[in-house]
Amino acid sequence: MKHAAKAAVSLLLAGSAALLPSATAHADGIRAQQWGLSALHLDEAWRTTKGRGVTVAVLDTGVQTDHPDLAGNVLPAKDMIGFGAEPGDRTWGRHGTAMAGIIAGHGHGAGGSEGVMGVAPQARILPVRVILEDGDPARAKARTTRGNALADGIRWAADHGADVINLSLGDDSDSAHPEPSEDEAVQYALKKGVVVVASAGNGGDKGDHVSYPAAYPGVIAATAVDKYGTRAAFSTRRWYAAVSAPGVDVVIADPDHKYYAGWGTSAASAFVSGAAALIRSAHPGLAPAQIKKLLEDTARDAPVGGRDDSRGFGMIDPAAALKAAARLEPRGLRPASYGDEYFGAGPDHARAASGASGWAAPLAGSAGGVLLVAGVILWRGRRRPA
Fold first, then answer.
1. Half-sphere exposure of 4 toward its Cβ, with a 13 Å CA cutoff?
2. I need a labelling partner for 91 at 20 to 30 A (CA). Which of 82, 193, 201, 283 fits?
3. Model pTM?
4. Measured between alpha carbons, how far is 88 from 241 in angstroms, rounded to an integer?
5. How do the pLDDT tens digits run along the chain, 386 residues long?
6. Domain locations in the chain as residue ranges
7. What are the catalytic residues?
8. Do 169 and 268 touch, CB atoms closer than 8 A?
9. 164-167 vs 55-60, strand pairing mode
10. What's the rounded Cα separation, in Å, for the pair 255 and 283?
11. Structural Rg of the chain based on CA atoms
């Protein structure tokens, strides 16, 4: 099993990592740099919910549990790899911590006014380590096959309380192809009612190769846009694009307790996962397909024609999605019986007439059914953090 995990890591991560010259950000200036918060109208969405009661599984490189912007929101982790860097090493958990902060960061300091604020700051993060950081020396050991770390991680998350699974990773190499075990794992999660979100890929300037897991059916694939709503040049354009979200100059929290400006469809995916967590928190009965459609139907700045391969249906609008979701679920319904005979006389009418009158009691139910100051740590490549 460990051998399979080793094989998985290389192709899951291989891609290119861009680390730009960095300048440390002061924590008290972070919030002003988080343009995505206002772009997504989160102040309005938070009047309804901040994600309480929802668990988002972050399948990534690990998540620092005691980061001040995440403390108390991170559940015990699962490591599907079993080798490589360990917590505390510089090559462990950078990408995963960044994604977790976008999803469920709650800031720190007085009233949480400093540091990174996530889309769903009251949601819980379930870390599942399925890939290695680009700088992990152990990657040299894993260059052959994809293995089952990702597929196993998806199933494990679905079986251990995940409401949303965030996959800020992807294989968009020349040899990228659908992996049956991964596809089956995604479908398994969806059938269990788990929303699955993935980055569309960072191959927009390299041929727009199809990226997996984004291309698996039922996945909400996120493309990246800048603060003007323009598609990022690196963001892959493909048929599976569902919606877009911030993916340029996005503030990210790092295990070193500093902040960086990051880019990538990884970040966009994390924003969308946070939005899905808000919807699931307020409307737990909605199915993954309903949440996907809500995000698509309520997206802003839709492309000409309503949708295209670069931005999907447009930029997510969590506040609008929450309002639309409220109209999907019936309110004030309760079991009731009909006052008059409903079915009419049957073959035993004469005998039944001597007893109680006919009745029916149908039950009505509800429908169930992505960094600040400088320095990028979002990676590109084959199955890598996207």
1. 9
2. 201
3. 0.82
4. 36
5. 333 333 333 222 223 333 323 344 455 588 889 999 999 999 999 999 999 999 999 999 999 999 999 999 999 999 999 899 999 899 999 999 999 999 999 999 888 889 999 999 999 999 999 999 988 888 766 654 456 999 999 999 999 999 999 999 999 988 889 999 999 999 999 999 999 999 999 999 999 999 999 999 999 999 999 999 999 999 999 999 999 999 999 999 999 999 999 999 999 999 999 999 999 999 999 999 999 999 999 999 999 999 999 999 999 999 999 999 999 865 444 444 333 333 333 444 444 433 333 322 222 232 222 333 334 333 333 456 77
6. 2-329+368-385
7. 60, 95, 266
8. no
9. parallel
10. 33
11. 23
Phi, psi of 78, deg, nearest 5: -125, 130
- Report the b/e string of 99-113 with b at 16+ CB within 10 A: bbbbbbbbbbeeebe
* CA atoms of 376 and 3, how far apart (whole Å): 32
CATH of range 2-329+368-385; options 3.55.30.10, 3.40.50.200, 3.40.50.300, 3.40.50.720: 3.40.50.200
Phi and psi at 237, nearest 5°, equal: -110, 115
Nearest one of 159, 163, 209 to 185, comparing CA atoms: 159
- Bridge partners, residue 285, by sequence: none
DSSP, res 315: B
Q: Is the dihedral of CA 42, 44, 46, 51 positive or negative?
A: negative
- Amino acid letter at 162? A
